[in-house]
Structure formats: structure tokens, C-alpha cells
Amino acid sequence: MNRESRRPVLRALRVLVPLALAVALLWAVHAWRLAAGVDDIARHAGQRLALLSASLDAELLRFESLPAVLARHPVLPALLADPDDAGLRAQANALLEDVNARTGAAMLYLIGPDGDTLAASNWRRADSFVGENYAFRPYFRAALAGGAGKFFAVGATTRVPGFFIAHPVRNAAAVAGVLAVKVELTQLERTWAESGESVMVVDRHGVVALSSNPAWKFGALSALSAASRAELVQTRQYDTEALAPLPLVWHEAGRATIGDREFVVGSRALDWLDWRMLMLLDTTPAHAAAVWSATGAGLLLCVVAAVALYWAQRARRLRERLGAQAALERTVAERTADLAASNRRLQQEVVERVAAEHKLRGAQRALIEANRLAALGQMAAGVAHEINQPLAAMRSFAGNALTFLERGRLEPLKDNLGQIIGLVERMARLTAQLKVFASRRRGAGGQAPAAQSMQVVAGWFRERLAAAGVELTFDDAGLSLPLPPEALEQVLSNLVGNALDALAGRGAGRIELRTCARDGLLCLEVADDGPGIAPELRARILQPFYSTKPLGHGLGLGLSIVADLVESAGGRLEITERPGGGALVRACWPAASESEEAQET
Fold it and tell me: Is this model's pTM higher than 0.70 or not?
């Protein structure tokens, strides 16, 4: 085969091979997505079965111990000993009727050793169990033998299916009769039906005892064997029900079909009478998801193919253009001239860049010097700002001390002098921390009880609060915050002072101090019912030297210092709106773990 004859074959292979690979890839995507969807459905079925089986267990466990407890009542053994005593029979009927009404069971009845029912909770009704013989029921035989009888069946008298639990009634250590309770599960089946799920409970013969679909009830998963039918006829478990096989076709890997619909079948074993709970979930969503995934993969392959064709065409055109340019000597000469010009421009740019770098270094040195001077000015202004409040408080305490001295009141005088001493010590600590302030570590380390610091700061502002008519309240959760006492007092002092300034001239107001622990955080909150802070100003007021107060009423360093103290201790400061109006400033720190607290102690 020559080259000309091979060209059509090669051309066809270039189309068919990528197409075959694309089809195989799409099939693999479809199969993978379908398997993943079916697995998800199976997991969901398992989870739902766990919940539904738990609800069934809970419903039956409510009544499991009822016959055992009620069998100890003296009236029941007495009636079994003398079945013809009308008085005892009336007492037993009344007892069973009352207990049945209180517990919510379907039926309670007492059976003699011969299988005849002596008393029942439904003794007043036309379908009363009294006089009926249930010797053929397995639960009666098991209880009469001294054990606990459990059985599910269609009621021989009422024709209503239910779960029967029986317990022996003893007289002088011997079994004298049987007390049984019937539990009807129709309400549970209605709940399953309302959920829209296909649920069934099958016994060991494969007969559907309970189901969310009434059409499936008392059907069989498959044709019953002769032995199973004989046993069911003997016990009259389903009485006259046909027990016809359901239109289910079972497949491998826990799947079944009904008509043209496929289902994933989840199964869970139950502890009651070798029951199994089955749930059928439609696989249509999994098939739809697989189709969509394959469609998406196909679209993606189309996009990739289009991009590949585009770049192949572009590369072809580029090769043609470069070939044409390579054939022209003039183009080469022009390119050479351009390169020479570019080289000269590059040299000029290098010279300009070197000069710019020299200017930049000079500007950097000037900027460093300016920052150093600004830092010194900010530090000095901050210290002056922080000392101003203790000085004002000392002046107030000193004036009070003179008044108390003139009046001969020594106890208040002693308290004022103590406050002055505390303020002096605080000023000493503040000035001693000047270096720590410069190194930005002044808020790190230490613990302080919030309640004690609140009381100290309240003493500082007592006169200002009274003069302004502002009420200061506390709501302390007994927390210790990760700040030294002087730092915590400085934070509270600045925040309370700002709140007082916001309430100035209003005639009355309220400032709230509180601590709380939530979401793994220790929080300190200062709130007021003043005019609040506009949202556009909340980020700017934390900057140094920014103030909303009139000129001469502050340097704008208070909140900046508070933010620095909180952040230095690993916390975060936020400003927001107080519910009901006003401003709320919140400082939060991560709560220390138990291991960290143990190391600190």
C-alpha cells in the first residue's frame, strides 16, 4: 500500500481512535457515578433503618415489662385459683381495664391454664376476649412453660394484627395461668407511610408483618414452602390471609425490581422474633445523576477538543508566518536595528534606575527618622493622656479628704487617702512601663479578676458619674482576664471615660460593665445608651490621634491604647451597636486550655 492509499486510512484512524476513547471515558464516568450514587442510597437506607428500628424497639419495649409487673397483683392469682368467683372476676376485669387505659396498650387479658380467657380489659365490648380459648397460640404455650412469650399475629377475635407479649402468673411458686398484652402497631405504620418511604418488616418465613404500603402487608417475599404454610396454619398467625408473593424480582448486591423500577434494598436484623426490617429506595436519582455526570464529561471533552483544534490551527498559521518572515532579509535587518535600539534604551533605564535607588535610600532614611520622632511623640502623648485621669481622680479625692478632715470624719478620710495612694502607685507603675510600651509587650502576661478592677475604676469615676447623673452597673461572671491588673484598669478607665464623654449633657444615662464566657472566649463588654458610633467611624477611631471629640478634648489615643493592650494579650477588640441603641465595645480573649491553666498554676 503506497502513501497515497494510506492517507484515507490514517485520516479515519485519527477520528475513530479519539472517538472510541471518548466513548469509553464517558461510559466509565457513567458507571462510576452510578455506583457512587447507589452506594449513597445504600448508606442512607442503613441510617434510616437504624432510626426506624429504634422507634419500633421503643414502641415494643414500652409494654415488655407490663405483664411481668401486673402478674404480681394478688387479684389475678386469686381468680386463677377460683375461676367461678364472680366477685374476683369483676375485680380482675376492672383492674385490667384501668391499667390498659393508663398504659395505652391495645388489650390486656388473663388466660387460665386450659387456654380459656378469664378476664380482659375489653370485657365490656362485643368482641371481648373473655371466654375465648388461645391455647393454640405459641405465646401462651411459652408463658405457661414458665418463660416469656412473644408473638405477632392477626387477632383471632378482633381480626386486628398486633404484637402479643405474655408472662406466667404464679401461685405458690407454680404457674397458674398467663397474663398477655396486645400491642397494636398501626400508628407506627401510618407514620412510616406519611414519611413517603417504602418500609416493611418480615418474619422468618418471609411474610410481611408490618409495612408502610398497605398493599404489601401480609404478602410474601417469595413463594412459601410447605413447612412454613403448615406452621402458619397451625398457629393461625395470619389466619385467613392469602400470603401471596409480592411482585418483587430480587437481584444480586441488594437490589430488587418492581415492574420497570429498580430499588436498593436495605436490610437490618431486629431482636424481636427473628424479624428483619427492609427499606426499598428508588435508584432513579442515581441513574439521573450518572446521566448528568456523563453529559457534563461529554461537554467538557467537546470543549477540550475545540480548544485543541483552535491551538492546532493557530500553531499552523504561526509556522507559516515565521517561514515567510525568515525568507525576507529586510525583516532580519529591521529586527537587528530594533535590537540595537532596545539595547541603548535598556542602558539608559539602568542608569535611571540606579539614580532612583539612591533617591529611595535617602527617602527611606528620612522616613525612618520621621517614624522615630512620631513614635516618641505618640508615646509621650499616650503617657500624658493616661496620667491625666489619675491626676483628676487624685484632685477629687484630695478635695474630699480636706472636707472630711475639717469635719473630723477619719474613716472616710482614711479611705480617700488610700485611694490617693493607689492612684499614685498606679501612676508609678504606668511610668515604669514606658519601656514596655515602646517594645509593644506591655499587655502580655498576668491575670486580673475583672470584678476587682471594675470596683477600682468605679471608685475613680464616682464623682464624675454622680455629677453627670449616669448609673454604672456591673454584671460579672466571676472571670479573670489575661491582663495584669494595671493594664485591665487602664482598659476599663479608657472605655468608661469614653462612655461618660458620649453621655455628657444628656442629664441621665447608663453604663454597663459585664463579663461573660461563650464559644471558647472570655469577653469584657462596656456598653452605654448614648448616641452610638456611626458604622463608617468604627474602624477609624482605633487609629492613633483620631478623635470624634471637639478640639482640645482629647488626643485620640485612648481607644488606640486599649486596642494595643487587648491585642498584646492575644485578644481582639471590636466596636458595635448596643441592642436598644448606644455603643458596645467588646474585648475577647481565647479561653486558656486545662493544660495551660495547670502550667500557670
Answer: no
The pLDDT of residue 525: 92
Asked if the structure places residue 257 within a domain, the reply is: yes
How far apart, in whole angstroms, are the C-alpha atoms of residue 578 and residue 530?
A: 9
What is the count of structural domains for the chain?
A: 4
Three-class SS state of 167: strand
The x, y and z cell numbers of residue 307, run together, are 480548544
Identify any residues that bridge with 525 across adjacent strands, giving them in sequence order.
514, 586
Q: Using alpha carbons, select from 542, 525, 540 the residue that is nearest to residue 577.
A: 525
In this structure, the answer to whether residues 431 and 450 fall within a common structural domain is no
Which of 237-241, 450-454, 540-544 shows the highest mean pLDDT? 450-454
Instruction: Kindly state whether residues 177 and 208 are assigned to the same domain.
Output: no
Per mean pLDDT, which range of 31-35, 178-182, 332-336, 510-514 is the poorest?
332-336
State how far the alpha carbon of 332 is from the alpha carbons of 211, 338, 506, in Å: 88, 10, 85
Q: Are residues 447 and 572 in the same domain?
A: yes
Structural domain harbouring 429: 335-435
Question: Strand 470-475 relative to strand 509-518: parallel, antiparallel, unpaired?
Answer: parallel
Closest C-alpha among 118, 165, 117 to residue 138: 165
Say which residues have a Cβ less than 8 Å from residue 115's Cβ, sequence separation at least 6.
133, 134, 135, 136, 140
Do 208 and 255 lie in one domain? The reply is: yes
**pLDDT for 370:** 54
CATH number for position 360: 1.10.287
Quote the pLDDT of residue 386: 66
pLDDT at 116: 95
Per the domain annotation, does 55 fall within a domain?
no
Distance (Å, rounded) from C-alpha 413 to C-alpha 411? Answer: 5
Q: What nine digits make up the cell of 112?
A: 387460665
DSSP E strands: which ranges in 223-355? 249-251, 255-258, 261-269, 276-282
Phi and psi at 260, nearest 5°, equal -100, 10
Query: What pLDDT does residue 383 have?
Result: 63
Those residues with Cβ within 8 angstroms of residue 490's Cβ, 6 or more apart along the chain or in another chain: 386, 430, 561, 562, 565
What's the CA gap between 155 and 242, in Å, rounded? Answer: 16
Q: Is residue 405 part of a domain?
A: yes
**pLDDT computed for residue 440 by the predictor:** 42
Lowest mean pLDDT among 69-73, 95-99, 352-356: 352-356
Residue 40 in domain:
no
Q: How confident is the model at residue 377 (pLDDT cuts 50, 70, 90)?
A: low
Residues 225 and 372 grouped into a single domain: no
